[in-house]
Design a protein that fits this description.
The chain is of the alpha/beta class and 314 residues long. Helices cover 46% and strands 14% of the residues. It contains 11 helices and 8 strands. It has a 6-stranded mixed β-sheet with strand order 2-1-3-8-6-7, sandwiched between helices. α10 links the parallel β6 and β7. The chain is elongated and about 90 Å long. The termini are far apart.
Length: 314
């Protein structure tokens, strides 16, 4: 009996010793890691962060990861998975006059004045690198590109990140009711941010690549087109805004714009929520065959055009 007890005690003692060794190893690892981490001044800039994302094929991304980046160039590198690209905007001179007395740059840290949304959030562009990097090149991504360019210019912009599909499903609506769904989100955004003054519904067209693309000085751009609904009484201010922005685009290069499409025919929506506010516009940037790089080039131009327009109006 004593022999058995001694055997059990030895097993227990060895078990305690092994557990103690494990605890010491884990504790030492945690302590060493903490000491090393505290000593290292790790300041990961955008380039380092994006290189990490690209090199590890980072998946299941969150849009918050993208919006934390400080420049659109980084945003697009994340989307493309490439190191460099040329937007071409530096070669284009914006010739329209600006009102230098207006300091838009002061809006950067204030409440947003521009609301960007997508009634058709899932409208997509060419799925370049999509499988490798789990990125959906859609008009929704385009909204964030435009937002970043506007922010760079001192215009505080807000992107609607709630799901249109969720609103449709909640109300039992079909895809054709997308404008009703986006109207709900617009109204809520205005309640949450009374400072909002301009509302941009970003879409893409369904035309051929030749129809929706232009090349300027060797750089390709997705052509832009404004759509104005005439089926409400107060459409005139919306039309005037679209015409003004269209003229500024054409002043840079006539091929950038496909013009202003006025819709009052049967079968067309004819309102597009433009009765919500006189400064509501619908803009189609490129088509389904355009690459996100071409969309980026155009949105960079448009951001400058809108900046120029706002400096003259605010």
């Amino acid at each position: 009996m004593k022999v058995k007890l001694k055997g059990r005690k030895k097993v227990q003692i060895w078990g305690i010793k092994i557990l103690g060794v494990i605890i010491v190893i884990i504790s030492s690892f945690i302590l060493s890691f903490k000491l090393l981490f505290d000593k290292i001044d790790l300041k990961m800039n955008n380039t380092t962060y994006l290189n990490y994302l690209v090199n590890t094929s980072f998946g299941y991304y969150n849009m918050a990861d993208i919006t934390n980046l400080s420049s659109t160039e980084f945003l697009l590198k994340y989307s493309f998975g490439i190191k460099e690209f040329n937007s071409g905007i530096k070669d284009i001179n914006i010739s329209a006059p600006v009102n230098s007395e207006i300091e838009i740059d002061s809006n950067t840290n204030d409440e947003p004045i521009v609301y960007i949304y997508n009634s058709h959030q899932t409208e997509s562009y060419v799925k370049e690198f999509a499988e490798e990097f789990n990125i959906n090149n859609t008009v929704y991504l385009g909204s964030y590109i435009l937002k970043e360019y506007l922010n760079d210019l001192g215009i505080n912009a807000l992107v609607e990140d709630n799901s249109i599909v969720d609103v449709l499903n909640t109300n039992g609506w079909k895809y054709g009711s997308s404008y009703k769904a986006s109207r709900i989100l617009m109204e809520q955004a205005k309640k949450d941010h009374p400072s909002l003054m301009f509302f941009i519904d970003l879409h893409r067209d369904a035309g051929s690549y030749e129809k929706t693309t232009t090349e300027i000085d060797g750089i390709k751009y997705a052509k832009m087109m404004f759509v104005v609904g005439l089926k409400h009484e107060n459409y005139k201010p919306n039309l005037d805004l679209a015409n003004a922005l269209n003229e500024k685009l054409k002043a840079i290069d006539p091929s950038l714009s496909r013009g202003v499409l006025q819709k009052d025919n049967a079968g067309a929506n004819g309102i597009y929520n433009q009765d919500f506010n006189p400064n509501t516009i619908l803009i189609e940037v490129g088509g389904q065959y355009n690459y996100i790089a071409e969309v980026n080039n155009s949105l960079k131009v448009f951001a400058n055009v809108l900046h120029d327009y706002l400096k003259g109006e605010l």
